[in-house]
Design goal:
The chain is built from eight helices and eight strands. By secondary structure, the chain is mainly alpha-helical. The protein folds into two domains: about 160 residues; about 110 residues, no CATH class. The strands form three sheets. The chain has a three-stranded antiparallel β-sheet. The protein has a three-stranded antiparallel β-sheet with strand order 4-5-6. It is rod-shaped and about 145 Å long. The chain starts with about 25 loop residues before the first helix and ends with a helix.
């Protein structure tokens, strides 16, 4: 875990999600659903009526209306001839009309049957063609849905693999930090020697100090994540001063209830008071958005060691 230039705690890197609004899992489910719906509709059989009805209206109906007009015209001609011969309404007139009506009826029935048969065959062919198109479309939607499902599985597997790799690296850092902290936790903490050894300086007799090798300890551990750790007095309880070094007081403490929520529970409960250090080393103290102060322990260690204290 790192920190930005302004002292804000950086967030852990998260696995990248697919970009854009396209969701392959939703696409797979939608494609399969459409494929099932289209297949079910196609399996119900071709809808001949939607093709037969327009044919009957436009072709069969038009033909029968034309024949009826011709019959009416023929009947008018027969009536006119009968009137001219003075036989209108007579038996010969009636026989002529009857024969004409019979002829048109026979012709109309024959034409109607042929047109209906022709119309049915055309409607059946069109309906079967539409059924084939629906079946093909449903199959294509099923293939696309399956492809989307496979793509989604690949993305999920890649994300899982990347997440496990990232988790492994983070666990390695945590294990290294815990091992280093364990070395410090086993050392004596009842005197000033503990925090002084943490920054690599050991006090000598008479209160003066000498610089020695930097041994692993609290500052090394806190510095692993960038050096900024909670040290606000409002987060602590049972505070006990254990000494000073280079004009900086060192304490040990326990976290109060607020501190247990704000502070990193893995950090040592030995260090400085941020409120106190802010007066002498304000550049090493940062106030986070939660209102609590953090101390740059790495910077403090560098300054104390660099000053030869």
């Amino acid at each position: 875990m790192g920190y930005s230039a302004n002292g804000q705690q950086a967030q852990p890197t998260q696995p990248l999600a697919p970009q854009g609004n396209f969701n392959v899992n939703n696409a797979a489910a939608g494609g399969l659903q459409q494929a099932m719906t289209g297949t079910q509709q196609a399996m119900q059989g071709p809808n001949i009526g939607q093709f037969m009805n327009p044919y009957q209206e436009m072709v069969t109906g038009g033909t029968m209306r034309d024949m009826e007009r011709q019959r009416q015209m023929q009947m008018n001609n027969i009536g006119a001839s009968a009137s001219a011969a003075g036989a209108f309404g007579g038996s010969r007139h009636g026989v002529a009309e009857a024969q004409t009506n019979e002829g048109f009826a026979r012709q109309g029935a024959q034409a109607f049957g042929q047109l209906q048969n022709q119309g049915f065959n055309q409607a059946l062919g069109a309906a079967q063609n539409q059924q084939g198109i629906q079946m093909g479309g449903a199959a294509q939607m099923g293939q696309l849905g399956n492809q989307a499902f496979n793509t989604g599985q690949t993305i999920n597997n890649n994300q899982m693999r990347d997440g496990l790799m990232q988790q492994g690296m983070q666990q390695s850092l945590i294990d290294a930090a815990q091992n280093q902290f364990q070395q410090y936790a086993n050392a004596p903490m009842q005197s000033l020697g503990a925090p002084m050894a943490a920054i690599g300086s050991i006090p000598s007799n008479g209160g003066s100090t000498t610089t020695s090798q930097n041994n692993p300890g609290v500052f090394d551990y806190l510095g692993l994540a960038g050096g900024l750790f909670a040290s606000d007095s409002r987060l602590k309880t049972d505070v006990e001063r254990i000494g000073s070094h280079g004009g900086v007081n060192f304490y040990k403490w326990a976290w109060n209830e607020i501190g247990k929520k704000v502070a990193d529970m893995s950090q040592p409960t030995v260090g400085v008071m941020a409120d106190e250090l802010q007066k002498t080393h304000p550049h090493l103290v940062v106030r986070f958005d939660d209102g609590f102060l953090r101390v740059n322990y790495r910077g403090l260690s560098d300054e104390l060691m660099g000053a030869g204290v």
